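During the second half of the funding period, the structural biology subgroup turned its attention to how the target accommodates small molecules. The most pressing case was KG4, which had performed well in the primary screen but for which no bound structure existed. We therefore specified the complex as follows and requested a full 3D prediction, including the ligand pose.
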Amino acid sequence: MALILGIESSCDETAAAVVSTDRQILSHALAGQEEAHRPFGGVVPEIAARAHVEALEPLVAQALADAGVTLDQIDAVAATAGPGLIGGVMVGLVTAKALALAADKPLIAVNHLEGHALSPRLADPDLQFPYLLLLVSGGHCQLLLVEGVGNYRRLATTIDDAAGEAFDKTAKLLGLGFPGGPRVEQAAKLGDPKAVKLPRPLVGTAEPHFSFAGLKSAVLRARDANTHSAEDIAASFQQAVVDCLVDRTRRALARVSEEAVQPTALVVAGGVAANQAVRGALEALAAAHDLPFFAPPLWLCTDNGAMIAWAGAERFEAGLTDPLDFAARPRWPLDPNAEKARGAGVKA
Ligand code: KG4
Ligand code: ZN
């Protein structure tokens, strides 16, 4: 059994955790930056980087203290090395390098997306490779066949916005505040999902790609029409996102079965996986395909240190460690062979 210290700092959460290779979460400490970014209605990279600098050292100390271990008792130091906001990533990675050097322990440079992709295996030892993963976060919306540690085949991605980005922009348009996803979910509970007719971009197309930019424009038009409440628009928007996610995931399931690949399960991870409507609809889709369904507990869906420590644990067990000169990567696709999707990376 080995102990891994994990550090996350790629967006607006500073986090550190100690996790063992046999799935014990000894500690997880997290400092959000919501207050700092709220006046701007979104994450400001410079503010984020500075806040990570201030928060990280005491958080690491807290994670070690809560776990009841010293740095010497840790077997490896893992940190997000990308993709993400480069200033924040560098703060976390450089801290991990310093700790690894000081304690003479190996460094493990973790792809943030791999942290999300493997997080369901931390929560549940029954989840085996290969599985079909819907990775839905603030920066990404992808369908991946997770074949093993470090082995990901991307079946689809978004051609414009990520699903979480659409939630955040909708919240902003409706004046629901920041962070957007949970606010839209709350408002949606009070609204009628059939009230506003909204598009389902790309639904029914052969490739299981996603698109959310048109949905966001439709929300803007619905708001300006002044005919429906924010709650009705939020509920209709959430339903449209759920319909898109389910249709595209169904298409990906068909695609893998055409290739005679039998996934062990349907899995959802990433911040948007914290959404109950999303979880419920995907669970029903899995049941219709006679597949087990896995979704991490809510706190493990949004960014945290435990998922980075766990990805580090999986890599450590596979003998994968990294040199101390490993450079932070603002862009770092999980599947290096995946083609660039049309329009991908174009921020609206
Ligand atoms: O994985 P994550 O914490 O950070 C990234 O790697 O992007 O995901 C954050 C995203 C944000 O866009 C946030 O609005 C969304 O996940 N999110 C939600 C919910 N909780 C977080 N979206 C919908 N419903 C939620 N309950
Ligand atoms: Zn994330």
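Two results from this model are relevant to the next phase. The domain at 129-291 is CATH 3.30.420.40 (Nucleotidyltransferase; domain 5). The beta strands are 3-8, 13-20, 25-32, 76-82, 107-111, 131-136, 141-148, 151-157, 266-269, 293-294.
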